[in-house]
Amino acid sequence: MAVKFVEACVEKPDETLPIATKLQWVGSFAMQAPSVRIHTVSREQKYERWGKEIKNLPVMLIQGVQDRCSEADKLVEIAREWLGSFELKMMKGVGHTPAYERPQKVNKYILDFVYNTVLSRAPQ
Known about the structure:
CATH class: Alpha Beta
Distance between the termini: 52 Å
Structural class: mainly alpha
Radius of gyration: 17 Å
Low-confidence stretches: none
Mean pLDDT: 87
InterPro entries: AB_hydrolase_fold (IPR029058)
CATH superfamily: Alpha/Beta hydrolase fold, catalytic domain
Helix content: 55-70%
Order of helices and strands: HHHHHEHEHH
CATH architecture: 3-Layer(aba) Sandwich
Number of strands: 2
CATH topology: Rossmann fold
């Protein structure tokens, strides 16, 4: 199960996921106590609290178009419902891990977002 999930995290695992990285990712999953793994997927979310607070915050979502772990169109639909407005970066040729697959591009998105939402509005 862990190997399939890890391989699904990138668009082309045979090309972009070195065996050492794959083993690290699988190992981090395998080393979790079963109770932690279960809690991760079954814990109750406090939507009422963060749902109100997040509407007042600037948000950028970075999503891989070829994500095999999540359905991008459904994630965007949910984000629109919860956030209202947000900045969206859909990355072609990228799976579930944009920061791993295209780190320079993701870093640029983040730096631009921080500059445009925080630094450009700061008092001079």
